[in-house]
């Protein structure tokens, strides 16, 4: 699964950087930071609890949540929601210690990673669409399409 998701994430991040505004690029930085830092802290355990990975995911949740509150992008809200699910899965070993439920949390986190990957592509589309709508909303006569040409002519009278 990682062999598929990592390249897909890199493509989505490149699209976000290409089409996105400041808020989209900050979201890409939050996601990229978590991807880079996680392997370095994944070995930090507290009993059977993966404290290092949990802290990185919690920081990623705070990052996405802050961006979602500050900027007007739906993909950031979705990313924050999915990341909240990922953080909650780290609590599973507290209620029932044992390997069975630990793997349940790992499986859920892989599913959340898939959802976040899809959300990155949605974010790239949303950024592209916002640019296009902003460009078409200007009152520059060169942006009018043929259907608007008659309207532009009638407005000149």
Keyword list:
about 160 residues; mainly alpha; elongated; about 0% strand; about 80% helix
Task: Summarize the structure in words.
Helix 3 runs antiparallel to helix 4 and helix 4 packs antiparallel against helix 6. Helices cover 82% and strands 0% of the residues. It has helices spanning 2-19, 22-41, 51-70, 74-89, 92-95, 99-137, 146-156. With 157 residues, it is mainly α. It contains seven helices and no strands. The mean pLDDT is 85. The longest helix has 39 residues, at 99-137.
Short description:
The protein has helices spanning 2-19, 22-41, 51-70, 74-89, 92-95, 99-137, 146-156.
Q: How many E-type strands? A: 0
Q: Any idea what the radius of gyration is? A: 21 Å
Biggest beta-sheet profile:
none
Terminal residue distance: 62 Å
Shape: elongated
Q: Supply the number of helical segments.
A: 7
The residue-averaged pLDDT reads 85
Oligomeric state? single chain
User: Uncertain segments of ≥5 residues (pLDDT<50)?
Assistant: none
Series of H and E elements? HHHHHHH
Percent in helix? over 70%
| Helix-strand category | mainly alpha
Strand content: under 5%
Provide the fold topology.
Layout: H1 2-19, H2 22-41, H3 51-70, H4 74-89, H5 92-95, H6 99-137, H7 146-156
Helix pairs in contact: 1-6, 2-3, 3-4, 4-6
């Amino acid at each position: 699964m990682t062999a598929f998701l990592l390249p897909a994430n890199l493509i989505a991040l490149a699209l976000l950087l290409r089409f996105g505004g400041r808020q989209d690029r900050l979201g890409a930085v939050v996601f990229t930071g978590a991807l880079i830092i996680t392997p370095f802290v994944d070995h930090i355990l507290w009993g059977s609890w993966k404290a290092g990975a949990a802290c990185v995911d919690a920081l990623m949740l705070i990052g996405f949540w802050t961006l979602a509150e500050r900027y007007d992008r739906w993909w950031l809200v979705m990313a924050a929601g999915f990341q909240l699910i990922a953080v909650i899965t780290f609590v599973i070993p507290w209620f029932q210690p044992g390997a069975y439920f630990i793997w349940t949390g790992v499986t859920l986190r892989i599913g959340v990673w898939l959802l976040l990957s899809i959300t990155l592509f949605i974010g790239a589309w949303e950024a592209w669409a916002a640019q296009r709508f902003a460009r078409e909303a200007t009152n520059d006569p060169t942006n009018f399409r043929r259907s608007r040409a008659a309207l532009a002519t009638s407005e000149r009278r």
